[in-house]
């Protein structure tokens, strides 16, 4: 049986996921993903009536349980410095990043 | 008896009535941690090999001694001033290292967050403090909660089961369950996305409650599957779980999915009679169906017969107490729980994990990089373990337009069918009219460390009996129902309709009370005696 996820597909996925992977790890991950796909394919065998709609949430939200939207007011976070100092590189209150490469997107 | 072996409700009462101070109770907990926990988890530290390492629990990623002492002293001061510090006054608890606590590291068991100090606290952590509880530390977990054994954490050594330290704690809230079982805190806050509270609770012989989705705020919880994640308590007894849920449940303006539904008095609900409650048993929950990648066939296996026997025996006790046991309840989509979970949880996880970039916070690679893309790739390749990598790659494969085969839509429809299965059995005008369903929590008891880890498909099937609950959004509660012939705890779960936590607590409490004279209730985790000074 051919793998659902080919080495070429895998390389593209790793690129989309922004992951640099050593070859042996990449091969292990690809094997596991293909094994998981065998389980996922079982979904094709579920009898689904036409009227079944997708459910993004298990529990429905309606007027009985939905939260009241909070007031739309802006607020200065008191922990600005604590938040900024988490950044690996900081200059004058700005987060520093290396050059942003420009490439053609698909 | 040390206060760390007492129920939380007893400890709080002793403190509130000035029979013991919160600081004394904290000292007992810290002494227990020193006695049984061994090396605290650290990134890239060696796995357990020494005799001491192999016979200790390793539940913690951080013991927050100073933070806890400040909280305990505050409780004692309030009591001296005649104030009431709350129903959990001075009760030591632990938080799974997936919750943020202001000024304290929040690692998610991952190298990528190993240096992250949270600038804010989770709602549940604030509410535990408001109820008077004292946080003694952060506890280990599967990396980003991805797993069912807690072995995937980057923080080594991984937690070991207090009932047999050669075995896993279950997961992903493994540190929580182990810490509670070993008396290193009476309560722990965990999270349950596909079974991650109930599963380790069953492996470690504790109570574990996954509330209804939205019953408890997710604010300050490092996200995995945002439509599935539920924070909830683990405890050694049902009353403590009820007290903890009481403290953390309810609407929260900072989480729009936190339901605007009044919180009942769970202690009162718990004390009510179970006479006349209709409790179902389903054959679908006494077997596991999975795809065997070697034989390439769908295989159906019965669960461990000792577990089935223990669950049926629990049903017998509940029947004696006046509950109506309803047999052969159909939940035909149970077997699709894991395949559906493979899709929905991965798509949501990949979306949630793309924020970790080595730029705003967290770990950044020490290697050189030419541009921002290379910085991302190197940082993320180095700092994520295999489970987050698998989940991101699969999530992208299932949701990116270029690969799309329609599995995500199929999974969302399967989810609707699982929800429908539960709605039908809990429908008060329907054929079954159940108040709850009683099932095993896991297909096995705690397995040996290293025996499943590495096979991501088999590990996921450990959640087959818990995952459908998360798809449907309904609550579930694990409670201990006995031991197998290797002296490992067996857990059963009760599942109920939306917001029925009170009924689930009532059933579990009735069983707990009815079995308090049973011999197995006397057992204590062997790790407590092997490490006695």
Molecular structure report:
The complex is a heterodimer of chains A (106) and B (533). A two-stranded antiparallel sheet of chain A has the order 1-2. Chain A has 106 residues and is mainly alpha-helical. In chain A, strand 1 and strand 2 (94-95) form a beta hairpin. The mean pLDDT of chain A is 91. Chain A has a domain at 7-45. Helices cover 31% and strands 4% of the residues of chain A. By secondary structure, chain B is of the alpha/beta class. Among the domains of chain B are: 3-277, Amidase signature (AS) domain (Amidase signature (AS) enzymes); 338-408, no CATH class. Chain B contains 18 helices and 15 strands. In chain B, a hairpin with a 4-residue loop joins strand 10 and strand 11. In chain B, helix 2 runs antiparallel to helix 4, helix 6 (174-181) runs parallel beside helix 7 (198-204) and helix 11 packs across helix 13. Classes of the chains: A mainly alpha (106), B alpha/beta (533). Chains A and B meet through helix 1 and helix 2 of A and helix 11, helix 12, helix 13, helix 14 and helix 15 of B.
Give the termini separation of chain A: 30 Å
Please mark out the parts of chain A with pLDDT under 50 across 5 or more consecutive residues, or reply none: none
The helix content of chain B is: 25-40%
* Separate helix tally of chain B: 18
**What's the order of the H and E elements of chain A?**
HHHEE
Strand order of the largest sheet of chain B: 2-4-3-6-8-7-14-15-13-9-12
Q: How do you describe this structure in short?
A:
The complex is a heterodimer of chains A (106) and B (533). Chain A has 106 residues and is mainly α. Chain A has a domain at 7-45.
